[in-house]
Design goal:
There is one protein chain. Among the domains are: 73-146; 156-260. Helix content is 65%, strand content 1%. It has helices at residues 7-12, 16-21, 41-48, 54-59, 67-85, 99-119, 122-141, 158-182, 187-212, 215-247, 267-276; strands at residues 33-34, 37-38. β1 and β2 form a beta hairpin. The two termini are 40 Å apart.
Length: 277
């Protein structure tokens, strides 16, 4: 009978992925594996932006990570949108880039949402669906062929701008709701919802002021809202870089500010406790 391998020999067969994943604060859970290595709840949340539960842990064995795909559509659209709002280079109007509202953002977000749903990643699925319909809804307002403003007294009328302002107020509360739940993921992802919430409320104020004829203050509020959305885009891009650097085995462990360890045990741990009773 051949002798059993020593701990040193076993360690030498550790994959590069395992070595990369073992960053500060990461511990392995032998009950949930991906490929040939176990994934801790912290690492799972870092890659999929959702708390680790049994259904989600099973899905990652069979599919590539769709999270950066959806986020890429989101950040490209948000970067473009924010720079136009801030008037960089004298930019005004969204008609030339209306594709960001229907193709770049929503298509990648919806594709990512579907695969997050298949894999059982609840919060990421909800987040991508939320951002996808936001871009689709806002894009409809930018299509001149629909003539939405013509049913009012023009695009500068008080009634028209008040309707859009109220629409953005509701979106602010939606982002606030997601911000609360994102506090179980990481600081960067939570920051996206926080700054998006503030941004849409500021943009709501810009529409209110446009309707009342205070175009100077409306312009300042629009610029401020655009600046906050620019921050949102930077945070989103950073998450894309973090996830892609891990998936491509770059050997760099960028932090996201894990918050999951601050909360009570997830369903996987609760299930283990129930089995032990």
């Amino acid at each position: 009978m051949s002798p059993s391998p020593s701990p040193r020999a076993s360690h030498s067969h550790e994959t590069d992925v395992e070595a990369h994943a073992k960053g500060p604060g990461l511990s392995y859970n032998k009950d949930a594996t991906v490929g040939s290595f176990a994934m801790s709840p912290e690492l799972f949340e870092k890659l999929y932006l959702t708390p680790k539960v049994p259904s989600a842990a099973q899905g990652v064995k069979h599919f590539a990570n769709p999270t950066p795909l959806g986020l890429m559509g989101f950040v490209i659209s948000t970067f473009t949108f924010s720079m136009i709002l801030m008037g960089w280079g004298g930019a005004t109007g969204f008609s030339p880039v209306v594709g960001i509202f229907f193709f770049v953002g929503p298509i990648l977000l919806l594709a990512g949402m579907i695969f997050e749903w298949i894999m059982g990643n609840f919060f990421t699925m909800m987040s991508m669906g939320l951002f996808a319909v936001f871009w689709l809804a806002f894009g409809m307002m930018q299509l001149p062929t629909l003539g939405l403003a013509s049913s009012y007294d023009g695009a500068t009328s008080e009634s028209y701008n008040t309707v859009i302002a109220l629409f953005l107020i509701v979106w602010g509360f939606a982002f606030f709701t997601f911000f609360i739940f994102s506090l179980k993921t990481n600081v960067i992802f939570a920051g996206i919802f926080f700054f998006a919430m503030i941004a849409v409320w500021i943009l709501s104020g810009a529409y209110f002021k446009t309707g009342s004829g205070d175009y100077t203050l409306a312009g300042h509020l629009q610029t401020a809202g655009g600046a906050l959305l620019f921050v949102v885009a930077i945070l989103g891009w950073y998450i894309v870089v973090v996830i892609m650097s891990f998936e491509m085995r770059m050997g760099i462990n960028f932090p996201l500010g894990d918050l999951s360890h601050l909360w009570p045990g997830n369903n996987a741990e609760i299930g283990d406790e129930e089995k032990q009773k």
